[in-house]
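Obj.: predict assembly geometry.
Materials: sequence records (below).
Method: joint structure prediction, all chains together.
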Amino acid sequence: MLKKRIIPCLDIKDGRTVKGINFVGIRDAGDPIELAKKYVAQGADELVFLDITATVEKRKTLINLVDKIAREINIPFTVGGGINAVDDVRALLKAGADKVSINSSAVKRPELIAEIAKEFGSQCVVIAIDTKYEDDEWMVFIHGGRKGTGLKTVDWAKRAEALGAGEILLTSMNSDGTTAGFAIDITAKVAEAVNIPVIASGGAGKEAHFKEVFEKTKATGGLAATIFHYDKISIPDLKEYLTTKNINVRR
Amino acid sequence: MIAIIKYNAGNISSVQNALARLGYDSVITDDKSTIQSASKVIFPGVGEASSAMNYLREKNLDGLLLSLQQPMLGICLGLQLMCKHSEEGNTNCLGIFDANVKRFPPTEIVPHTGWNSFSNLKSLLFKDIKKENDVYYVHSYYAEECKETVATCDYILPFSAGLQKDNFYATQFHPEKSAGIGEQILKNFLSL
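Observations (raw structure tokens):
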């Protein structure tokens, strides 16, 4: 039986792990290499690493950090932030990433999804969607949530799948960092609309939130940062809890 | 020296990192003599079948791989390219294993992504591995079960999670990304 995945996420700014609330008020959460090692030892199923302030100048720093983390971990490793071209993907894979997460650049130029999928396979392409509920509609935002796109979230998810995305990482900006629970409504809608894996992200605050998202939506993974970074929930305790609730996870 | 076959595919560095963590030096290469003289050969891969086979043919590596006598381990796309034919890009593959590679029917989420178990373990590759363990898979195509199947996984339908014929070994899952159990499988291969 395929297991539900528990995925810690490291948001990186200037080489440090950071975390904000609703995408603002960012504070330091520790050394990314130490956190990565800790999560692997605790039984994390994958690791996601997002450079939230990626720029061309900082790209070398990012590659070095990806290389250092990749040497340490023996589970799948997704890297995102500032990826605009097939060559960016090649460099990250060479540094030891297994998948890349694309967000703003895919919205601006959707063909990028197809280009990466053709070169490295669909399984390598994770489309990250930051979504916000506005005027009775879940809409797509880019540039770290700062810029609206006019795209409806479900429509964009379906388009990304058609272009060759292998996975969708769906973050609710309304929930992110609030620890008030995943956005069940839009997660369910997106996971129903596509036939590729959907990872729910944003808002996890307690163990029951993971149970809720796995029971009420077709999401196959739950991603969180705050609760893991600040030891509000440990991954082993979370997996123990989910097992008692008859949700299959890797032990 | 362990040779990791270089071709135009994805996360080859992951394999090299995994070997380094186990204390083994390796070289990523498409050089024929380096591959021929290696003690072990790893044929990794994520990517697309037809472009990967084209690359192997351009470099004249297809015949070389078939002639290898030392243990060789195919991983993921590597396993699929060691089969007869793949539906991906309608590709004639190396034909080491007597199985065809097909696309999963879309009755469940495809690609099959995440940790899943395996059973019917029948190879030295799986020495000291308990069958209830989970390993990491990510693939949209699968190899049918055949007489060389040495591990089975069930997702949508039963398929070959492991294959072995003589010195040719292969896993559909990624041992380099399968935590401690994956390390044990790589160690078993390296001890052959």
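Conclusions so far: The two ends of chain B are 14 Å apart (CA to CA).
To do: check interface contacts against the pulldown list.
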